[in-house]
Design goal:
The protein is of the alpha/beta class. The protein has a single domain, classed as Rossmann fold, CATH 3.40.50. The protein contains five helices and six strands. The longest helix has 27 residues. The model has no long low-confidence stretch (mean pLDDT about 95).
Length: about 190
């Protein structure tokens, strides 16, 4: 009996959720994406919200930036949202971007890498779980969380790659891959009913 052919790599969008000057998110997202790219079963793409010229108000018709972002979400099989925790929640820039897509999020898995100062981003993650549940996405149980004032990042804000960090990243990616492959197969077999 011939061996089963491996499925094509899962398309994972790592989304940098902060647009604030001096943010740590880009550095953390690049570190995490580098870890994820070590896996042959993933095709990782970085999506930085700072690269988009989103409108200050929600317009009647989507702008090119809004359409481009929704297209990035639509092409991905799974997501990892890298978010800071600001005032016990996630940033407005991330909420705005999430709202520019709708059907594109449905029946896809979402994982979280969160960070904060004197916080590891747990409140931001918990708030995002509710948002993504409403969008009919599946959130991963485990996440990677970093306290920027702790010993887990170096002076440049790069995660140190401690055993705990590497284990959390691996667990998150394992869960994301399992759900991503299962949901991709399900979406191909039958349209998602919302």
């Amino acid at each position: 009996m011939p061996a089963a052919q491996a499925p094509p790599p899962l398309r994972v969008a790592v989304i940098v959720g902060s647009t604030r000057e001096g943010r740590a998110g880009e550095t953390i997202a690049r570190w995490f994406a580098g870890r994820a790219r070590r896996r042959a079963d993933l095709a990782v793409h970085l999506v930085d919200l700072a690269d988009y010229a989103f409108p200050g108000r929600y317009p009647e018709e989507p702008t090119p930036s809004m359409r481009d972002f929704a297209g990035q979400v639509g092409r991905a099989d799974a997501f990892v949202v890298v978010t800071p925790e600001y005032n016990r929640s996630f940033p407005a820039s991330l909420k705005q971007a999430i709202e520019f897509a709708y059907d594109e999020w449905q029946a896809k898995p979402v994982g979280f890498v969160a960070y904060g100062c004197r916080s590891d981003g747990v409140y931001a993650v918990e708030h995002l779980r509710g948002v993504f549940t409403e969008l009919q996405a599946v959130t991963m149980r485990d996440s990677l969380r970093l306290n920027l004032l702790g010993a887990g990042v170096d002076d440049a804000g790069v995660p140190c790659g401690t055993d705990d960090q590497l284990q959390a990243a691996a667990t998150l990616l394992d869960q994301l891959t399992w759900w991503g492959l299962a949901l991709r197969t399900a979406r191909a077999a039958r349209p998602y009913v919302s």
